[in-house]
Amino acid sequence: MIVFPNCKINLGLHIISKREDGFHNIETVFYPINWCDSLEVLENHGSNAPFVYSQSGLAITGTIEQNLIYKAWEIISKEKKLPTIKVHLHKNIPMGAGLGGGSSDAASFINLLNTKFKLGYSEMGKMKIASLLGSDCAFFINNSPVYAQGKGNEFSDINVSLDQYYVLVVHPNIHSNTKEAYEGLIPQKPKHNLTDVVVSRPIMEWKDFLVNDFESTILKKHPPIKMLKENLYKTGAIYASLSGSGSAVFGVFEKEPETNFPFEYTFYLQKPSPKIL
Asked: In which element (H, E) is residue 171 found?
């Protein structure tokens, strides 16, 4: 069985306060984008190895024990009887980009196991497992736009759609570290109500009201990212922003944008939905 885990962008992101557990209270809107990895799970007949993993595409650092797919398998295998399986991940979504690719892979793996092996998890059950793996992981279980609060794991539905626009997501081959992004950042009450801006204001006005607080640190530390955002506006974006803690930047366009980037950059262009046009 093969699935295609997609990524996300953040429509605004406010760092509101420091928590007693060492994390931060944030608010943001997670929005799904169809830049995808591919994930295959097969029964490993005749093998005594309960979990066999392989990967291709972009290199992934770290040990298997640090891999979110493996961590999801560990949790589920303690709760449900699973056959021996082999897993292959082909990685397309850049890492350290603020796109949530690793979280998406794990959430898709949870959904896949539940369907393939008829495990009987409810949506809430799957989200509970995903929430143990990362703040944004549970978002990918249902994979529809949400307003996120708390550590980024408390979700509310939100009515927002970019289906009539081109969305260009660009990764400038820079790995952004979340810890680094928080350095020098002072939590504060946002100037504008995030949901009011996203839901009620035209996208043409987002440039003046919709803010990602991480830009105050990341754009200073990485001038090429700042330049990338500026170039997206120069080429016609009606809104452009860092995604998450970066380093990917996205632009929203009314017309199909140019994609003349340096060869080391990677990008994905999501085109308008034909149902709307």
From this structure: strand 166-171
> Contact, 6 vs 35, CB < 8 A?
yes
**Distances from the Cα of 128 to the Cαs of 75, 86, 141, 150, 179, in angstroms?**
11, 24, 10, 15, 25
Closest-CA residue to 99 (of 15, 166, 37): 37
The domain spans of the chain are 2-157, 166-270
How far the first Cα of the chain sits from its last, in Å, is: 33
Residue 60 structure tokens: 């992934």
Coil vs helix vs strand at 242: strand
Query: Which H or E run contains 207?
Result: helix 206-209
* Sign of the CA dihedral running 268, 274, 276, 277: positive
Positions annotated as catalytic residues are 8, 136
User: What is the rounded CA–CA span in Å between residue 6 and residue 265?
Assistant: 19
The type of residue at 15 is I
Handedness of CA 266, 70, 113, 110 (dihedral sign): negative
**pLDDT of 81-124, one tens digit each?**
999 999 999 999 999 999 999 999 999 999 999 999 999 999 99
Q: 2-157 belongs to which CATH class?
A: alpha beta
The CATH code of domain 166-270 reads: 3.30.70.890
Specify the 3-state DSSP secondary structure of 231: helix
**Residue pair 238/225 in contact by the 8 Å Cβ criterion:** no
Query: Which segments of 145-193 does DSSP mark as H helices, in order?
Result: 178-182
pTM to 2 decimal places: 0.95
**How far is the CA of 217 from the CAs of 19, 86, 258, in angstroms?**
20, 41, 28
